[in-house]
Amino acid sequence: MMFRRRSTHGRREDAARTWAVCSVLLDYPTEELVSSLDELEALVADDPHLVPLIDHVRGRTLAELQQDYVATFDHTRKCALYLTYFAYGDTRRRGAALVAFKEAYRRGGVEWSEEHGELPDHLCAVLQFGATVDVAIARQLLEDHRAGVEMLRIALAGWRNDDGSVGSPWAGALAAVSGTLRELAGDEAEAVRRLVEQGPPAEEVGLSGYGADPALSTGPALISTATIPVGAPR
User: What is the DSSP string of 108-131?
Assistant: First the structure.
């Protein structure tokens, strides 16, 4: 995918740049990611969180990166990249929350593309949407799930590596994203505390209701000016 940058200024431009880079670094590692590292670093050359992560990616083979990525994000529920998971777990209420993400993308003039095989609340997708389509709508989605973003940051910061060290390399990306958002306070801080102690809701019902929701079948599969794929630059 190529980033289609909108003209923005100040903090909006800084956030969009950070989100663009994080959307790539937090996705499954590919040859395209490895080949784009110089370009990514040029966008965030002074970022104290992202430059070390980019250096880490440079210092590993693709096979090592992919193995570590799967162990971190696919095999551990506390490091899920799906924002609604932290608020709703695998409960029926999560289906409605996923519909809200698709509707938010539609308000930005794009349609979520099912062909990529991802759910619309994937953090990479939200960041990519904000970087390439609409900063304000993406920010609202992130702020609405601020506790989940913070929970993921905490989980990655406390990740225990095989060599006994603490902290996932990908923690830098979440720190960078968090730095573009407002500080947690009040009820949100309490929500994070509960998530740390109890984890997401555990009612195991799957997401069959999500696919059956009538709101998901309105309109053509692809409309307007763009779709929101998930992945490294193509």
Answer: TT-B--GGG---TTBHHHHHHHHH
CA dist 10 → 13, 17, 130 (Å): 5, 11, 15
Q: Residue 122: phi, psi to the nearest 5?
A: -60, 130
In the chain, what is the greatest distance between 2 CA atoms, to the nearest angstrom? 51
Looking at the whole model, is its pTM more than 0.70? Answer: yes
Report the DSSP beta bridge partners of residue 139: none
Residue type, position 117, single letter: G
Per the CB < 8 A criterion, the answer to whether 92 and 64 are in contact is: no
Q: Which of 72, 70, 40 shows the shortest CA–CA distance to 53?
A: 40
Distance between first and last Cα of the chain: 4
CA distance 125 to 54: 20
Distances in Å between the alpha carbon of 6 and those of 3, 19, 74, 157, 189?
A: 9, 13, 32, 32, 33
Q: pLDDT digit string (tens) for 209-220? A: 444 333 333 332
Asked if 170 and 26 count as a contact pair (C-beta separation under 8 A), the reply is yes
Q: What is the pLDDT of residues 82-106, one digit of tens each?
A: 999 887 877 777 888 999 999 999 9
Specify the 3-state DSSP secondary structure of 187. Answer: helix
- Judge contact between 3 and 233, C-beta under 8 A: yes
Tell me the three state secondary structure of residue 106: helix
The answer to whether 199 and 78 are in contact (CB under 8 A) is: yes
